[in-house]
Amino acid sequence: PILYSYFRSSCSWRVRIALALKGIAYDVVPVNLLKDGGQQFSAEFKAANPMQQVPVLKIDGITLSQSLAIIHYLEDTRPNPRLLPQDPKKRAQVRMIADHIAAGIQPIQNLSILNKIGEKKMEWAQNCIASGFQALEQILQHTAGRYCVGDEVSMADLCLVPQVANAERYKVDMGPYPTITRINKALLELEAFKVSHPSRQPDTPAELRA
User: Fold this and answer.
1) Res. 120 pLDDT band, cuts 50 70 90
2) pLDDT of res. 196
3) Which residues form the GST N-terminal domain (predicted)?
């Protein structure tokens, strides 16, 4: 497998966590979203993903983009450990939380949007994340055990940790979100979340390395 990834991309991080949890070895092709005007806009990368976004995973003779679609494929083809619960209600909760982050928070505070906002990008990112986290905190109070849904790591957790990292990067006050903070701390103690961390990637700049 080959993963086209950017060390700081939260969507790429979700897939790196899934690959680590499932013990899938892969090669990384770094795609620097800032260098050369954005390497994702190159003709070579556009051939891999016409949306010009990371991550892209080449695996089993197919090329997949969109982090949740990639994770679903890994779940379908390599089901251990399970990232979607067997119980239909819990499975729906996992998908709800994953979509809440992947569709409702991350896209409106990602790099392409912030570049268009201009001077108020920090304020914009903070507002987007805070409004999403206010809802997410309430949801998690009904679904959480040790992690987002019960006591097993799920696709929801793969979305949560990178989004909290974004929040910290944009200096969001995490005080109002004790459940999010507690779950994030527990997840960051797990090896799969450590090895996939942005500070430990092949393309991480020296000054940001762990």
Assistant:
1) very high
2) 98
3) 1-82
For residue range 1-28, what is the model confidence (pLDDT) as tens digits? Answer: 999 999 999 999 999 999 999 999 999 9
CA 181/CA 161 separation, integer angstroms: 9
CA-to-CA distance for 192 and 186, rounded, in angstroms? 12
In terms of Cβ atoms closer than 10 Å to its own Cβ (0-12, 13-18, 19+), residue 42 is: middle
Domains annotated for the chain, with CATH where assigned, are 2-81 (3.40.30.10), 88-193 (1.20.1050.10)
d(CA 12, CA 164): 14
Q: Is 79 exposed, middle or buried (0-12, 13-18, 19+ CB in 10 A)?
A: exposed
198: helix, coil or strand?
helix
